[in-house]
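Structure in, sequence out. Go:
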C-alpha cells in the first residue's frame, strides 16, 4: 500500500517536474538567449541539465554523480574537435591543394575515431553511475534538446525578420505618405 502511494506520488511529481522543465526551457531559450554571451551559454546549459535530467529520470543521487562525469565528457569531446575546427577555418576546400584536402579528410576521420573512443570510455563510466537504459536514452535526449534549441533559434530569427519586414513596410508607407503630403 505504501509503495503504491510512493509510486503514484512520484509519478505525479514527475508530471509536475515535466511541466516545470518545459516552462524553464521555453523561458530560457527565448530570443535573447541565443547571443554568444557567457550568461546566455549558462542559461542554455541550465536548460540542458533540466531537460536531460527529466528525460533520463535521474534521481538526485544519480544526478549528483552523473553531471560532473557528463561535463567532463563534453569538455573532452569539444577539445577533440577544436583542432579540426581550426584547421578547417584556415583552409577553403574549394581551393585547397590535394595534400591539404587529404589532410582535412584524415583529420575528420581522426576526430570521428576520437569521439567514438570517448563515447565508449564515458559510456562505461556512466553505466557505473546510472542504468544502462538511461545511458542508452542519453543520446536521444541530447539530440532532442539540440532539436528544440535549433527550432527556438529558427523561430527567433523568423520573428526578428517579420518584425524588420513590418517596420520596413511602415517606414515605406510613412515615406510615401510624407512625399505626397507636400
Amino acid at each position: 500500500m505504501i509503495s503504491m502511494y510512493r509510486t503514484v506520488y512520484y509519478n505525479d511529481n514527475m508530471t509536475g517536474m515535466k511541466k516545470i522543465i518545459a516552462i524553464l526551457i521555453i523561458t530560457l531559450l527565448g530570443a535573447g538567449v541565443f547571443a554568444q554571451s557567457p550568461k546566455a551559454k549558462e542559461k542554455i546549459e541550465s536548460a540542458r541539465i533540466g531537460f536531460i535530467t527529466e528525460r533520463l529520470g535521474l534521481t538526485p543521487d544519480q544526478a549528483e554523480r552523473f553531471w560532473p562525469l557528463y561535463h567532463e565528457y563534453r569538455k573532452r569531446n569539444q577539445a577533440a574537435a577544436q583542432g579540426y575546427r581550426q584547421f578547417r577555418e584556415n583552409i577553403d576546400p574549394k581551393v585547397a591543394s590535394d595534400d591539404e584536402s587529404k589532410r582535412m579528410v584524415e583529420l575528420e576521420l581522426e576526430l570521428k575515431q576520437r569521439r567514438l573512443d570517448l563515447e565508449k570510455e564515458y559510456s562505461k563510466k556512466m553505466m557505473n553511475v546510472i542504468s544502462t537504459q538511461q545511458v542508452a536514452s542519453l543520446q536521444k535526449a541530447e539530440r532532442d534538446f539540440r532539436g528544440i534549441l535549433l527550432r527556438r533559434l529558427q523561430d527567433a530569427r523568423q520573428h526578428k525578420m517579420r518584425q524588420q519586414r513590418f517596420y520596413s513596410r511602415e517606414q515605406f508607407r510613412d515615406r510615401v505618405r510624407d512625399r505626397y503630403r507636400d
